[in-house]
Amino acid sequence: MKAALAELMKKYTVIAPVMAEDKLVYAEVNEVKDIVLDNRLPYKSPKEVVFPRVENVMRFLENRVEEMQEIKPVLLVGAKPCDTAAMRVFDEVFTGDKGRFKDRFYSNRRNCLTVVGMGCLEKKPGCFCEERGTDLSFSPDCDGFLDPVDGGFVYEPLTGKGAGLFPGTETEPLKRRSPLTEKLVIHGKEADVFTAMPWETYAEGCIGCGTCTYLCPTCHCFNLRDAENKGVVTRTRVWDSCMYPGFTLHAGGHNPRTKKFERFRQRVLHKYLYIPENYGETACTGCGRCIRSCPGGLNIKNTVSDIMKRLEEKKNSEEAEK
Fold it and tell me: Measuring CA to CA, which residue among 163, 211, 176, 187 is closest to residue 81?
C-alpha cells in the first residue's frame, strides 16, 4: 500500500493523518512513512481540504475582475466516519438543491477531492458518534474504504473515483451499509426551545474562544475581506465563528447577540434545528472534538440530551392534560 501511495503522490496532493507538534492532524503528506493509520482521531477535522481557513477568491483589477482560486486534485486518506459524514452537510449547504445559492469555489474543490475512509475500533473520550447515528466501523460517504485485516488493510472502492485508485481495485464500486438512523436530534419547534430552555446555565462556562467552531467538521461560518496592495484589491474568504461577540455586529452598530448564552443558543439550534429544517441534515457527527477541547467544559451532547428530555416531559404533560 505504501508503494501505491507513493505513486499517487505524483498525481494528487495527499492529505492524511500525520503527527505535528505532538498532535495527530490531517495535513499534507511529504513522505509516505509519515502517514498514521490507526484508531486515533485527528485533533482537527479535514474540512480545510474543501473549506480553507484562508482562501483568495478574486481580485479587482482596473478594468476587470479575476477569480484567483488554484485547484489541484486532492486525495484524502484515512478519514474517519464522523469526518466523512460531515461532507454531506457541506455538500447540502454549499451546493445542494435546497440551498438558495451554489458556491462555485466550494464545488471546484469538492469535485477535485477523492476520499478514502477508514473506521474506528472504539469510541474516544467525548465521542457520541453512535448517538448521532454515525457508524464507527464504516462510512458510505467516501470514494473508497480501508478495512483493517491482519495488520494491514483491504481497500474497497465505493464510487467511480475510488475504483482503480490502488492496483487490483478496478472493480465495480460497492455500497455495503447505510448510515445509522439519527438518535440524538432535536425534534421540536423553535418556539418550544428558544426561550423555554435554561440557555444561561448551558453556556455558563463559555469563554467565547471559538475553539469548538474551528475544530468542528461541520461548522462553516466565514467572512469576506478586501485588502488593497499596489492598486489591486484582493477578496479573501476567511473562517469566522458564531461564538465571537462581533460575529453578528451590524454596520449600523446594532448587535442582536451580545450575550454569550445567545451565541451558544444559536450554535446549538443551528446544528440541531435550523440546518435539519433547511437541508435535511444535522450539522453534528458526534466526533466529540468540541467536548474534548472546550476550556470551559461545555458539552453539546449533554445540552441536546437535556433539551430532548424537557421536550418529551412537556409532550407527556400536555397529553396527560387532554
Answer: 176
